[in-house]
């Protein structure tokens, strides 16, 4: 019998279509050749590699699941998941950039916008000519988006927006912001060009996580936009929550890539590191850790693949996404920490990836629903009682 792949013990790849495998191989090659050689330095410098945006766009990774008529790739949900997995094998910041552009900015324009808005924005966003950010979270809000203070007031044929958003990925590289605001008719969404008078984006500094990603605060001081910039086909929290379901789906796949990177590096290091006249990979203590990493990655792979099949069948439910995000983020952060431990002192440097992935995953396990929030979502499904 052939040897099993340490990072694919159940041969998940055999369950993929030819197109899905081609997508995975293409993005894996991009990650190996273009991301990994520079990403450690980017993390050290706190710099998002904007020079990669044209190539990311040329590969069809922006809005990859949206229809081809809008300049997008028209791929299925599993392919989008594999894109997220391979990008996050490089770095969570790269996957976050693509996730925000695709699921949080392009998706709401497609799902909630007018046909004119789709035609105006989606082809340019798919080409990487226009970058978006998603303005939902507020400084005081966190896990309670209904407690939104940003307000949009109708003034003739315009809307005037006042308020602030916090922890916004892509904020200082974006040309448009998808902004959610309270109105007299409930929560609504607006496309706000970032050069609009009164709009300010401010980079959040001193981060120890997602350092190769741009994170910003957004501030709105009497920002005036025309009614034609309002997304007309949604009102209420179901709008932003629908976007978050799309993004969280991709996040269930992304941490698998980070975990695979950590297992691979820890495994290779353990085979090369000789102590007491034998490689540490020959000790039971290290083998137990590596075996447990492989087990948990396998379970996460099966979970996300089934979730992707449900998504493509149109039967995926938000609670199922919550279960997968909870499980897979917890899996990945635990593996990153164990891999760092196997590397010993070497593991605290960004010459190796586990400490970088561990720090990034502190954000991934928190954003778009904290671990506790997703646990409570499942608790509600199990008991029928809302404990929020």
Automatic annotation (TrEMBL):
Location of the Acyl-CoA oxidase/dehydrogenase middle domain: 133-223
Keyword Flavoprotein attributed: yes
Alphabetical list of SUPFAM superfamilies matching this protein: Acyl-CoA dehydrogenase C-terminal domain-like, Acyl-CoA dehydrogenase NM domain-like
Catalytic activity annotation: glutaryl-CoA + oxidized [electron-transfer flavoprotein] + 2 H(+) = (2E)-butenoyl-CoA + reduced [electron-transfer flavoprotein] + CO2
Domain of life: Bacteria
Domain Acyl-CoA dehydrogenase/oxidase N-terminal: 17-129
EC main group: oxidoreductase
Entry keywords, A to Z: FAD, Flavoprotein, Oxidoreductase, Transit peptide
Residue stretches making up the Acyl-CoA dehydrogenase/oxidase C-terminal domain: 236-382
Matching Pfam families: Acyl-CoA_dh_1 (PF00441), Acyl-CoA_dh_M (PF02770), Acyl-CoA_dh_N (PF02771)
GO-annotated biological processes: fatty acid beta-oxidation using acyl-CoA dehydrogenase; fatty-acyl-CoA biosynthetic process
EC number: 1.3.8.6
Family to which this protein belongs: Belongs to the acyl-CoA dehydrogenase family.
Name under which the protein is recorded: glutaryl-CoA dehydrogenase (ETF)
Native source species: Chiayiivirga flava
């Amino acid at each position: 019998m052939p040897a099993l792949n340490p990072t694919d013990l159940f041969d998940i790849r055999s369950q993929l279509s030819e197109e899905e495998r081609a997508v995975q191989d293409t993005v894996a090659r991009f990650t190996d050749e273009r991301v990994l050689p520079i990403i450690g330095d980017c993390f050290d410098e706190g710099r998002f590699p904007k020079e990669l945006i044209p190539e990311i766009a040329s590969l069809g990774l922006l809005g990859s699941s949206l229809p081809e008529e809008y300049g997008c790739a028209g791929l299925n949900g599993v392919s989008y998941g594999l894109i997220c997995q391979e990008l996050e094998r490089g770095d969570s910041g790269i996957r976050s950039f693509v996730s925000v552009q695709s699921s949080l900015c392009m998706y709401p324009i497609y799902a909630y916008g007018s046909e004119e808005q789709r035609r105006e924005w989606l082809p340019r966003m798919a080409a990487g000519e226009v970058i978006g950010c998603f303005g939902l979270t507020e400084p005081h809000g966190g896990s309670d988006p209904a407690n939104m203070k940003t307000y949009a007031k109708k003034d003739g044929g315009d809307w005037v927006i006042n308020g602030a958003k916090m922890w916004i990925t892509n904020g200082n590289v974006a040309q448009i912001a998808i902004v959610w605001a309270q109105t007299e008719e409930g929560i609504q969404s607006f496309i706000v060009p970032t050069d609009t008078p009164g709009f300010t984006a401010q980079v959040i500094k001193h981060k120890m996580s997602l350092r190769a990603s741009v994170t910003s605060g957004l501030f709105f001081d009497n920002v005036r936009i025309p009614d034609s910039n309002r997304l007309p086909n949604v009102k209420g929290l179901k709008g932003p929550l629908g976007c978050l379901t799309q993004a969280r789906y991709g996040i269930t796949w992304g941490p698998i890539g980070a975990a695979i990177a950590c297992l691979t590096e820890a495994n290779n290091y353990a085979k090369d590191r000789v102590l007491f006249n034998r490689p540490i990979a020959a000790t039971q203590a290290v083998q137990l850790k590596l075996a447990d990493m492989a087990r948990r990655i396998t379970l996460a792979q099966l979970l996300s693949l089934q979730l992707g099949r449900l998504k493509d069948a149109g039967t995926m439910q938000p609670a199922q996404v919550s279960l997968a995000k909870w499980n897979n983020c917890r899996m990945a952060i635990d593996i990153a920490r164990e891999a760092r431990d196997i590397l010993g002192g070497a593991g605290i440097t960004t010459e190796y990836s586990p400490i970088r992935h561990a720090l990034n995953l502190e954000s991934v396990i928190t954003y778009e629903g904290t671990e506790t929030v997703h646990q409570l979502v499942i608790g509600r499904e199990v008991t029928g009682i809302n404990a929020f």
